[in-house]
Amino acid sequence: MISRLEGDVDSRGSDTDQSSTSSDATWHLHYDTAVIHAGLDKTPRHGECTVPVFNSASFKFPSSAAADDAFSAVPDVQRWVYSRFGNPTNDAFERRMVALEDGVDAVSLASGAAATLTVAMSLARVGDNVIVSNFTHGGTFHQFKLIMAQMGVESRFCNTNDLERVRSLLDERTKFIFTETIGNPKFSVADLEPLAEIAHGAQIPLVVDATFTAAGYFCQPARWGADIIIHSATKWIGGHGTTLGGVVIETGRSDWQSNVARFPQLHGREFGSDKVVGTNLYTALGSRAYMQMLKWDFMRDTGACLAAPSAQQLCIGLETLPLRCERQTNNADQLARWLRAHSRVAWVRYLGFEDHPDHALAKKAEQLKVLPSLMRSS
Predict the structure, then answer these.
(1) 324-375, pLDDT tens digit by residue?
(2) 328 CB neighbour count, 10 Å cutoff
(3) With CB atoms 3.0 to 4.6 Å apart as the test, which of 25, 113, 252, 364 could cross-link to 287 if both were Cys?
(4) Which residues carry this modification: N6-(pyridoxal phosphate)lysine (predicted)?
(5) Coil, strand or helix: which one is 364?
(6) Is 1 helix (H, G, I), strand (E, B) or coil?
(7) Cα–Cα distance between 95 and 86 in angstroms, integer?
(8) Which CATH number among 3.90.1150.10, 3.50.50.60, 3.40.50.300, 3.30.70.100 corresponds to the domain 322-377?
(9) In the CATH scheme, what architecture does the domain 70-313 have?
(10) What pLDDT sits at residue 196?
(11) What is the pTM of this model?
(12) Residue 310 and residue 242: Cα distance in Å, rounded?
């Protein structure tokens, strides 16, 4: 888990002004620069220019007092204890993702599936419910439909662009709204801004799987109101089919974490009562509270951590992401147009075509012409 060090990075390449949380001067990073330099140690121990692999399960402490401090409930600085809940290589990857997605904190996990399920488990308990887009990845649908149900959590599936339907499903036990920037496999585009307004009106987070918008290259959900962003880093981020990984990013866009009634776990409270059972993370850490809990209470104890060599591979993958995405979109556009003109092709589903049902939304979210077509031969 990390705190944001870099300045804002625009997905289209323009830089914006925002003070850094570090003691260094504000960084002004073009997106193509951030994919290479964000997250690097500014004072590397050996002068290295790339992300090194810290392939160590555990880390030494100079004294027993230092070890005791490292295991404290709310460490005030990043300390390396055991790689199941933190590693310097993973930290570099997380920093880079925070910069690219305009967030405040991140936690890397073993896969996109691990990231989604960990977020769901951390926010909802027995008797709660969640609102989920019915245009989600098959594995995600399975997690909400079967696994979360076995944990006593009801998943209320709907078209999340039907805002009245979303409002009708919302009640006092709803813990979050979940959607995908672009749904897999139909390329259904989420209308994030009004959905975020509904979530924030209930003081719950809008959770967005942004895998298909490629680490902020095509769309930064945070700018449309998303509170928690999830990526299967295996896809566009890694880019080469060699590495599994996932990442969760907190954007700090709303005050959902201050909601004691819905999220007592962030306030040291026991569910269903006012009994204090632990540290009030929100008081101590503000918008970083949720990521602290996700790391120390869930990633640590489920063992769903990302391996350090995988984190390095994902950093390497990010370095070529803008080049790959540009080539892929150009190729996809040419291929879609060629297929549509072919006599043996029945139909082509492509966001770049005006007959795609979500073409207007894709254009609104600056996601036009971003993905390969879905076609069927006659």
Answers:
(1) 998 988 898 899 999 999 999 999 998 888 898 988 887 775 544 455 443 3
(2) 16
(3) 252
(4) 235
(5) helix
(6) coil
(7) 13
(8) 3.90.1150.10
(9) 3-Layer(aba) Sandwich (3.40)
(10) 97
(11) 0.87
(12) 9
